[in-house]
Amino acid sequence: MLLVGCAEDLSTLHPAGPVAAAVADLWWGMLVGGTIIFVFVMALLAAAFRRGGHGRDGERVWLAGLGLAFPLTVLAALLVWGLMLGERFLVAGKPEATRVQAEARQWAWTFRYPGTDRAPTEDVLFIPAGQPVEIEITSVDVIHSFWVPRLAGKLDAIPGRTNILGLQADSAGEYRGLGAEFSGIGYLGHSFTLRALDPADWTTFLAGDTP
Amino acid sequence: MNALRRHRELSRIWASDRGWRRPFTTVNHSDLGRMFMLAAFFFFGVGGILAMMIRAQLATPHSAFMEAEVYNQIFTMHGTVMMFLFAIPLFEGLAVYLLPKMLGTRDLAFPRLTAYGFWCYVFGGTMLLLSLLAGVAPDGGWFMYPPLSSTLGSPGINPDFWLLGITFVEISAMAAAVELTVSILKIRAPGMSLDRMPIFAWYALVTSLMILTGFPPLILGSILLELERAFGLPFFQADLGGDSLLWQHLFWLFGHPEVYIIFLPAAGVISTILPVMARTPLLGYSWVVAGAVALGFLSFGLWVHHMFTTGIPHLGLALFSAASTLVAVPTAIQVFAWIGTLWKGRPEMHMPMLWIVAFFATFVIGGLTGVMVAIVPFNWQAHDTTFIVAHLHYVLVGGFVFPMLAALYYWLPQVGGRKRFFKLGKTAFWLIFLGFHGTFLLLHWSGLMGQRRRIPTYDAGSGWELINLASSISAFVMAIGFALVVIDIATNLLVSVRGSRNPWGAASLEWAMPTPPPSYNFASLPLIHGRDPLWSDPKIGVAIAKGEGFLGAPRGNQREILTVSTARGTPEAMVILPGNTALPVVMSAVTGLFFAGFLFKLYWLPPIAVVLVAALALKWAWSLGHRADQGPQPVGRDTTLPLAAERPGAPAWWGSVFLLLANATLFGSLLFGYAFLWTIAPGWPPPRYLDWMPLLPLLVLAGAGLASPAIRLAERRAAPHVGLGVAAVGQMLLLASALWLLAAAPDPTGHAYGATVAVIAGYAALHAALALLLTGYCLARLRSGFVSQARCTEIRIARLWIDYAGFVGIVAMAACLAPGLLQ
């Protein structure tokens, strides 16, 4: 691997765009909620060994209450949160979004910039910073997956299909990207770099120069 | 007859052969259950060694221990071995060993089938093991996604070992599932109605039904992928009308239920052991049963959550996300039923209970992270990182391995008849428990930090080094713990002093027999009045030994058991089981030739193997039955019952019903795949659809229309020879129509449409041929005097297969011609 990065440059918990940031928030929320539920269940379990058997059944409390009503409430709330988040990301075809194309193969990436005269780039994807971008992802051989952990989740590159991923980098800079679906011998090195450019640099780039 | 003489007589009748022949000819469920479990533990050791190699490789950055080429084989085989050669067979072994004892009977419904399944497992597993030793093991991940696993990504023999070896092993899962389903529904102690069944039997029933409906999609997928690899039928190639996503759907349609197929038996073990440890009946028996059944159903509705990153349409995502979270509800019901049981009883902290506590502490975390990954946006980040590695090990080790260790310590006194002597178990417990959490807890974190699964190494400075080092050290601590368990169990079985019969004070019938258990289990079959027979009547073991139950008077060389009515458990009939035979091991070896032929591309071999298997199967079936009606038989307690073969609803008939359920699921999966390709795959429509063939429907309808009424005629014995003869003619018409369809199919290598039509037509032809064979068999049995008005189970079974072949013929024709008509 060419890039020897710092400890945080693949971290989903060090987001650099609105999509990844929302998922990181979701994670912290679920971690807190999950920890509370875990401690609660373990406390119930420990208490069973502490107290002498009452011999009382309490079937309604245990089964209808804790078994049925409790998870249904928690899950419904979580599901709504997750779906609303997903809704926000999935709105493809935003008119203002910049479209780029990512084509995966064993073990490299080709990126194209439709609607411009810009020549394709290999293993480096350029996008404008601070605005929504949509990436059309496909593959020419086996299944791969497009992943820039600090910007958004994964989306698979599948032969014969095109998937569209929306993301945004808040500020200009370099972000590491990975092929994130096992693809054989060269899987480890199947990575790329995403460079988000300031408006001026982006114009320069589209004109054919690499800033 | 006194108890000792009864014991001697029954031992003589039910004994397996002595000496070296014993493992090869035994059909006894205790023998086979132990052999199954031993083999499963052996493969657990193999999988464990592979795991240690993975952790050694990942302990430090830039490890030079293994090349990617080797590493890919190691992690693929680790998953494959643990899933297919350890977890499922261990359930099968446990259920085969325990169920007849818990259900108060002497053996399972089809003893030879148990043996056949066992040998298919051993031979198939050996095939995979050899590939590993030869360095050509599967290396595309245990999920085998094409095109990587197809000829494009893997031209070598590696994936063939997986596709053929696993399918071979799956025969044992299907055999065990049919066997267990029929046994649980029909072969129980008199009086044991469904609501008096031990809770483990409910779980085993749900699990078996899930195997019957969950494994066929995988078997179909493996067949299709092998056809693509061997003969170029492009089911998964996008440019020829296939779709790689079809494999993912078929694989996860199996793969998600698989998780619950593994968890449910463990939950059954907990529901059995935990109340005994708490000295009180299980809280909410019917809630728990409902929870297990609900899990079984729901688990078929969440396979897509393994595919959230494949670009599934939005509505689909929402639906499957909801279903995936919903599955937590029946799990919660069971977890709180168990904790509630502990609250109402007086729990004691013996070894089995210790492992159950470890289960709670681990599985609850796995369940919670499971809900997290069911939330789609989070899934997109966590997918294919070590977060998932951690999650799945919390679920599978916490939810299966720990309960199985509880089971091991709980039933060891029953299997070996000895007291626990050395106390290594507790040390082992702490090493495994702490080692496990040390290995996997922090891997959640490294996954969120961007560590992908399945990478052979990583860079220094990635921020994952400490986590991975700690994980690897803990993994070796855990391995030492497992080694101690082996030593603990071995010393216990070999040198401990004899123990008492029911050391835990349990309620279920496996504790109402001498330990280690005799070959016949029960000297007489007890009459059951409640859910906890040993708690309501602690002396029931004595009554059984004194012959106070059913079948307490052994006769001749007959291995006798009873069948009961499914719901109420009223005795219905007597079954005489077959004795020791090497037929199962021979037949599974010949079955192995079939797979070996494909593996080594010796395509003349499989047809020979099919003919040999068919011949052996006929010999197998021919050996049963009588040439004269036997009439009502005395079964003790002043009762007489007919032989099962002399009344409707014999176990063999039920066996065919459930085999057909699995078979129909396979056919349904094939039609699903066809519809999926037709509507969703990118490369459609094909160059040419089949033209309308006006004669074909006539031929199919004539075939089915002749065969089905004719076999009913034969069954009613109005004119059996004529009926069977006409049925045979009908099958020939169906066979001819299927072969015609096969010949008319467009080039199967040119487009997925032609390939699918060829497979559908081939399936129809196979079933017409099978029904024809069965009809011929019935004619031969009729001529030899094995069939009479009363003894017509074989014709009833033939009727099932003939009706199914007719149904398949009609559906296959309609499916193949439909696209051309609708064009």
From TrEMBL, chain A:
<dbReference type="GO" id="GO:0016020">
    <property type="term" value="C:membrane"/>
</dbReference>
<keyword id="KW-1133">Transmembrane helix</keyword>
<comment type="similarity">
    <text>Belongs to the cytochrome c oxidase subunit 2 family.</text>
</comment>
<keyword id="KW-0812">Transmembrane</keyword>
<dbReference type="Pfam" id="PF00116">
    <property type="entry name" value="COX2"/>
</dbReference>
<feature type="transmembrane region" description="Helical">
    <location>
        <begin position="61"/>
        <end position="84"/>
    </location>
</feature>
<feature type="domain" description="Cytochrome oxidase subunit II copper A binding">
    <location>
        <begin position="95"/>
        <end position="208"/>
    </location>
</feature>
<dbReference type="InterPro" id="IPR036257">
    <property type="entry name" value="Cyt_c_oxidase_su2_TM_sf"/>
</dbReference>
<dbReference type="GO" id="GO:0042773">
    <property type="term" value="P:ATP synthesis coupled electron transport"/>
</dbReference>
<protein>
    <submittedName>
        <fullName>Cytochrome c oxidase subunit 2</fullName>
    </submittedName>
</protein>
<keyword id="KW-0249">Electron transport</keyword>
<feature type="transmembrane region" description="Helical">
    <location>
        <begin position="26"/>
        <end position="49"/>
    </location>
</feature>
<dbReference type="GO" id="GO:0004129">
    <property type="term" value="F:cytochrome-c oxidase activity"/>
</dbReference>
<keyword id="KW-0813">Transport</keyword>
<dbReference type="InterPro" id="IPR008972">
    <property type="entry name" value="Cupredoxin"/>
</dbReference>
<keyword id="KW-0472">Membrane</keyword>
<dbReference type="GO" id="GO:0005507">
    <property type="term" value="F:copper ion binding"/>
</dbReference>
<dbReference type="InterPro" id="IPR002429">
    <property type="entry name" value="CcO_II-like_C"/>
</dbReference>
<dbReference type="InterPro" id="IPR045187">
    <property type="entry name" value="CcO_II"/>
</dbReference>
UniProtKB/TrEMBL annotation, chain B:
<keyword id="KW-0408">Iron</keyword>
<feature type="transmembrane region" description="Helical">
    <location>
        <begin position="161"/>
        <end position="187"/>
    </location>
</feature>
<protein>
    <recommendedName>
        <fullName>cytochrome-c oxidase</fullName>
        <ecNumber>7.1.1.9</ecNumber>
    </recommendedName>
</protein>
<feature type="transmembrane region" description="Helical">
    <location>
        <begin position="118"/>
        <end position="137"/>
    </location>
</feature>
<feature type="transmembrane region" description="Helical">
    <location>
        <begin position="602"/>
        <end position="622"/>
    </location>
</feature>
<feature type="transmembrane region" description="Helical">
    <location>
        <begin position="723"/>
        <end position="743"/>
    </location>
</feature>
<comment type="similarity">
    <text>Belongs to the heme-copper respiratory oxidase family.</text>
</comment>
<dbReference type="InterPro" id="IPR013833">
    <property type="entry name" value="Cyt_c_oxidase_su3_a-hlx"/>
</dbReference>
<dbReference type="InterPro" id="IPR036927">
    <property type="entry name" value="Cyt_c_oxase-like_su1_sf"/>
</dbReference>
<feature type="transmembrane region" description="Helical">
    <location>
        <begin position="317"/>
        <end position="342"/>
    </location>
</feature>
<keyword id="KW-1003">Cell membrane</keyword>
<keyword id="KW-0186">Copper</keyword>
<dbReference type="GO" id="GO:0022904">
    <property type="term" value="P:respiratory electron transport chain"/>
</dbReference>
<keyword id="KW-0479">Metal-binding</keyword>
<keyword id="KW-0812">Transmembrane</keyword>
<feature type="transmembrane region" description="Helical">
    <location>
        <begin position="575"/>
        <end position="596"/>
    </location>
</feature>
<feature type="transmembrane region" description="Helical">
    <location>
        <begin position="392"/>
        <end position="412"/>
    </location>
</feature>
<keyword id="KW-0349">Heme</keyword>
<dbReference type="InterPro" id="IPR023615">
    <property type="entry name" value="Cyt_c_Oxase_su1_BS"/>
</dbReference>
<feature type="transmembrane region" description="Helical">
    <location>
        <begin position="424"/>
        <end position="446"/>
    </location>
</feature>
<keyword id="KW-0813">Transport</keyword>
<feature type="transmembrane region" description="Helical">
    <location>
        <begin position="657"/>
        <end position="680"/>
    </location>
</feature>
